[in-house]
Design goal:
Layout: H1 2-12, H2 15-34, H3 42-48, E1 53-54, E2 60-61, H4 66-74, H5 85-100, E3 108-111, E4 120-125, E5 131-135, H6 138-151, E6 156-158, E7 161-163, E8 181-184, E9 189-192, H7 197-200, H8 207-219, E10 224-225, H9 231-241, H10 259-263, H11 276-296, E11 301-303, E12 308-309, H12 311-316, E13 322-324, E14 339-341, H13 346-363, E15 369-371, H14 385-402, E16 407-411, H15 413-417, H16 424-431, E17 439-443, H17 456-459, E18 463-467, H18 481-494, E19 498-503, H19 512-520, H20 530-542, H21 547-558, E20 583-584, H22 590-600, H23 602-605, H24 609-639, H25 643-664, H26 672-680, H27 686-700, H28 720-741, H29 748-763, H30 777-795, E21 800-801
Parallel strand pairs: 3-5, 9-10, 9-19, 11-15, 15-16, 16-17, 17-18, 18-19, 20-21
Antiparallel strand pairs: 1-2, 4-5, 4-8, 6-7, 12-14, 13-14
Length: 802
Amino acid sequence: EISERSNNLIAKMRPLKIIVLTVALTLATVSHCSEIELHKFSFIEELLAGQSFVATDGSEVDAVSKDIVHDSHHSHHGDEKKDNPKEDMIRTVEGMIARVTPDIKDNFVLDIPSKIKKDSFKLLQESDGKIRIEGSDGIALASGFNHYLTQYLHGSVSWTGDNLSHIDSSIDMPPVDDEGIQKVRFLTWSYYLNVCTESYSMVWWDWNRWEREIDWMALRGINMPLMFTGQEYIWVQTFYEYGVLFEDLKSFFSGPAFLAWQRMGNIQGWAGPLDEKWIDSQFEMAKKIFKRMRAFGMKPVLPAFAGHVPDKFGEVHPDANITASPTWSSFKDPYCCVSFLEPTDPLYAQVAESFVSNLIKYFGPNDHFYNGDQFNEMNPSSNDPAYLEQVSSGMVKALKKADPDATWVIQGWMFHYASSFWGSDQILAYLSGAADDEMLILDLFAESYPVWQNTESFYSKPFIWCELLNFGGQNGLYGRMDTVMHKPQECAKDSISMSGIGITMEGIFTNAIMFDMLLDQAWMHAPVPVYEYVNNYLVSRYGAKNAHTEAAWAILRNTVYNSSVLILPKPRLVQRPALVGGTTYYDQCELLGALEHMLEASSTFGHVATFRNDLVDIFRQVFADLFDSWITQYVDAYNKKDTETIKLLAKKMIQLLKDDDRILATSEGFLLGTWMHDAEKWASSEHEVELYRFNAKNQLTLWGPDGNINDYAAKQWAGLVEDYYLRRWELFFKTVEAVISVGQPFNQTYFNTACLDLEQKWQTSKKTYSDKPEGDTIELARELLKKYKTHVASACGTLTFQ
């Protein structure tokens, strides 16, 4: 095959080029026989891929595609031996059990019986004391193991630490009831991930971290995850087919930390360029991710072509109907206004078909789910219902041309975000472009703004009830437990087309209980009392029932997790300083009691990672509240020109920020160093180190060249608090005192300019941060509680409720 595609080129090339190509073809043959990935011979790709050759007669020969050097490895997909799917899933779950509980891995017997109920698992006691887990597929088996892990072994795996240290070879395996335990799935789908999550939380992950996450997905019963990693490789191959070379994509692809928004057409090129090494390494990892997901029995949702193309595409195809996307979040040229190939153009269907065909070619068989959001936070060029139906119809037809069984998965976010554009006529028309079995909608923010209720269940289209909860992965104890426990169940009864539940947070690592509560409902057939669920959850999270942890969480359950506000408010501590006071969404005085109860329980659970994480998280929240109270008092003192109080409060807030950084530094879940270290690991040159550092820092802070979405993804992390937020507040306090001393009013515009200079300098600072916890969480928490208890108590009632 390669020879046929190369003969014409060889015939016209100079001798040196013939030698180069011959070496490439020889390596390709070796690759085919020995399973060596040819792309690792990077010098060959650099010489061949995307390069033009000059023939002996002086004419230019067409560029050589990377397909030539890759096809030899991928062309024998269909020749691979097919294993028994049931055996594959059993082996996959056995591997997961060995990673989670290696000391007792041999105490489980797994089986997928032919006559078991669909979407169910059963736990049985074997005569030799082993636990038999029967399941309908790999996800059911993993869910059954998780049920035994949490309910019998009182252990857990979570984003914010594990409670597994007590599970070793000496443990007695608790028996299950004689008749066994059986659970049947209540809802078909358990969906996972927002398109933004891969950028806000996962962008720097390696395979080891992804493997852990996929294990967690299986344990939690997730059977439909979004799989967007590595797609840039597919875009390179696809655009090449339409005359766009890799060099032309450098102004199109964003830097790694901003790929989510480049993929959706919001921005292009920002914090780039994206090099081939990153693209290739992500693609290699993506193949592992995809394979492992499917090995469990998950149905990954892959990307689709939504219409966004590089500017070069329009130059190569001048007759194509291409429009400029609207400006997004004040990004200016060259980062804005991404070219959009209208779905009504015949070329759109060709590109979409090529992209899906390449997905299948390079990843292998898939499960026919594709996500493509054409208008994420950007309105279409027309609100004419006929046009909108054409647009969506064009998307579906293109998908099905490449994959006749394709289902288009879309985020319903735009219907809420741009509700002034998307009236009922527009939504109905857009959804009418697909048959009911051709589309699946994610009601992305259903816990606060359920779109299904205002659209007759998306006009009968299948949809998934999703919990969003946070934006940008910002910290903050927050949730609406009663809503999450009851509303999905009510929706399932009232809606004619609800087909699952999903968690679609923009960033993970926060409020794990809120997402676990929703995921657990896939196996519930009726709500349980919230207090009962929480107390049971604590046993698996910390390892045992305890009066003090229950008392602490009763306070949390009735305050931060009983919020009446629909969006998590951001504390003033992480916002650019201004003469603005803080607000609250709960009685802040109550949290002091939760902190005291947690410290009382520390003698029992101080060694448990999840307990220490939660203790630090509560302390972080208390400090954020106290800062809000003090800045509110500070604004009042400024209005009264009370210089003495201004100076006193400024001194207190500076010290609080330093102490906040100290307590955060004791927990591995609150370290800037981890984020930075993970970014730098991907670099192979000093230039890449600087680029990835910039990406990591800019996303957390300015989010754009000029603070376009400033502090949107703010994190209360050790290192970030002291080196960034503290420095801004020090500048602010110094500026306020200076203007008061000369009798001038504070000028926010002038300050913002000075602050931006400080912020931008931090983006390029080469200071490194530790990725290891420092200090003893329990000891420092006791010290700081003693230091601040009176301050917290005296600040009660100073904040305005939202």
